[in-house]
């Protein structure tokens, strides 16, 4: 028999413990923060609280068996149905410093501009993994480098199945990235999770529409 009162108390204690840890970690951040406990179906909760400029962070389970559960599948599906971007975090992260990588299919891929904004803020190099494999002269990328002052490295990855861990490791062999950014719907379902597992760094999945580069990338200003 389930003791509902005890279950409710245990839940409240667990929530308060997590809140203390969150507040302790967040107080060092320069941005605003808030802790909130939401009750109800996951999909409705994500839909009601998330906005386009939010990021839903999901730490993936340690074992493949846990990843295959319906609960985790529902969590992922609900996150991707929300308005927010989604960040998949592997259970073990191998690097917290290094370039920010964008997997792109064109020079106007939203993931490119998001990755550039993050690299600029983190004072890191930007690595562009070109899934179309062209690596040709691109005015858009040249303008991005000029506007931001970012050091940019381009890697052609034509014909590589990025959802395959071995192929993914091959595509990234020249990079020691700390974060990978990719656009949702540009690759097969499960690609982001496979890449996060293969590279053991977080993968940020942004919506296809994305944000315009001039909204997220600070422009250089003249010094007087």
Percent helix:
40-55%
Mean pLDDT: 80
The proportion of strand residues reads 15-25%
Unreliable segments of 5+ consecutive residues: 210-224
Radius of gyration: 19 Å
> What gross morphology would you assign?
globular
Helix tally? Answer: 9
Identify the quaternary structure here: single chain
**Order of strands, widest sheet:** 1-2-7-6-3-4-5
H/E series: HHEHHEEHEHEHEHEH
First-residue to last-residue Cα separation: 74 Å
- Biggest beta sheet summary: 7 strands, mixed
Kindly name the structural category.
alpha/beta
Give the total of beta strands. Answer: 7
Topology of helices and strands:
Blueprint: H1 4-26, H2 42-49, E1 55-59, H3 64-67, H4 70-81, E2 85-89, E3 100-104, H5 110-122, E4 126-130, H6 139-148, E5 152-156, H7 165-171, E6 179-183, H8 191-199, E7 203-206, H9 213-216
Parallel strand pairs: 1-2, 3-4, 3-6, 4-5, 6-7
Antiparallel strand pairs: 2-7
